[in-house]
Write a structure and sequence with these properties.
The protein is 78% helix and 0% strand. The chain has eight helices and no strands. It starts with a helix and ends with a helix.
């Protein structure tokens, strides 16, 4: 049985590593492309278009990627410049792009991000300053700022524990099905319950875990 399992195992490992490498290459490539496009629009004095591409660069970034720091710094600079020029709506867009981009790349167990917290502070401050919405016309500036900051803090995010159960359940489910396909049948294709029993139970437990995680994460 071992020689028969070795070949499929090596093939699965090779395919997995190849797919992972392709995903990493795609993410790094897209991040670099978006960063270059953002810089081109910024050089062309079209900051709002640059903001959009800097936000995409953040969303495509890998952990510890220098592209993230560069895009964050650029968005902070653009937001400050737009506010200085009197474009409060543009500054709000820049800060919201920064906060949203960082929120989209957070991890299950990540703590608060000081850069994003500062961006949310600036968003709340500018919303109170802007007052473009008619519903905000009669609210005191400080009350409006506090209310908006509270809303920004009320995130709807995946529960870390249920999210972990979802990921582990899916991995167990798929892994057990691979084992079932390689160990549950003999060379002539006949099903053997003794060899398939453990993979079937593993697939069932994994599927249940995945379903529960999907429901409650």
């Amino acid at each position: 049985m071992k020689p028969g399992w070795g070949r499929p195992g090596a093939a699965v490992a090779a395919v997995t590593m190849t797919l992972a490498a392709l995903v990493l290459w795609r993410v790094a490539s897209e991040s670099s492309t978006e960063l270059a496009a953002a810089q081109a629009y910024r050089d062309d004095e079209r900051p709002l278009l640059a903001v959009e591409h800097y936000r995409r660069a953040i969303r495509w970034s890998l952990p510890l990627s220098p592209h993230t720091a560069e895009a964050v710094s650029a968005l902070q600079s653009i937001a400050a410049q737009l506010e200085e020029d009197g474009d409060v709506a543009g500054a709000l867009l820049a800060w919201r792009s920064l906060s949203g981009g960082l929120a989209a790349t957070r991890f299950l167990y990540a703590g608060s991000n000081p850069v994003r917290e500062n961006a949310n502070d600036q968003i709340a401050r500018l919303v109170a300053l802007d007052r473009s919405a008619a519903i905000d016309a009669n609210l005191h500036a400080e009350q409006l700022r506090a209310d908006h900051r509270r809303l920004l803090s009320e995130e709807v995010s995946p529960d870390p524990w249920w999210g972990t159960l979802l990921l582990l359940g899916m991995a167990m489910w798929v892994g057990a099905l691979v084992l079932l396909a390689t160990r549950g049948f003999d060379s002539s294709g006949r099903f053997h319950w003794a060899s398939a029993r453990a993979p079937i139970w593993g697939a069932l437990i994994g599927f249940v875990s995945f379903t529960l995680g999907l429901l409650f994460a």
